[in-house]
Amino acid sequence: MTNDGQWLTKLVREIPDYPQPGVTFRDITPLLGNAGGFSRAVDELVHRFLGMKIDRVLGMEARGFILAAPVAYRLHAGFIPVRKAGKLPWAVVREEYSLEYGNDKLEIHRDAIHPGESILVIDDVLATGGTADATCRLVEALGGRVAGLGFLLELDGLGGRQRLAGRMVESLVHY
Known about the structure:
Blueprint: H1 6-9, E1 13-16, E2 24-27, H2 29-32, H3 35-49, E3 56-60, H4 63-74, E4 78-84, E5 92-99, E6 102-109, E7 118-126, H5 130-141, E8 145-154, H6 160-163, E9 169-174
Parallel strand pairs: 3-4, 3-7, 7-8, 8-9
Antiparallel strand pairs: 1-2, 4-6, 5-6
Helix pairs in contact: 3-4
């Protein structure tokens, strides 16, 4: 696998001033619609964590689901969805967090992680790190261990990696 992410940046559409003025949204739907690009992105994420003990792969709503499920399959691990508040039908643990343009809440089923399990967190973009940090807190609240975090894209100027200091963070492309 190559660390040259130019192939990936060609499949990411930049949408200025979305969802609000001053924010540039990185739209990965062109990547998802490109069979070769999507396969390569999943393969490269998997490659970063091969050889590690991973019991479950966790994906955050909604684009994280799309990436984490095939990564879990390839690593022979279970998949865990983390959803926005009110979307899961059973007993949950909730974590509030802030992101670059507001606040939100994440939830996970109380029985999604068993104490001592090794969890890989996958999402599309690492920006301020609010969502990823809240997700790590959910994992640890249930007794799991965050083995690492993997992202397609990392927006270096927003400080997400610093917010996740001390954790293994892998990103395919840096902006």
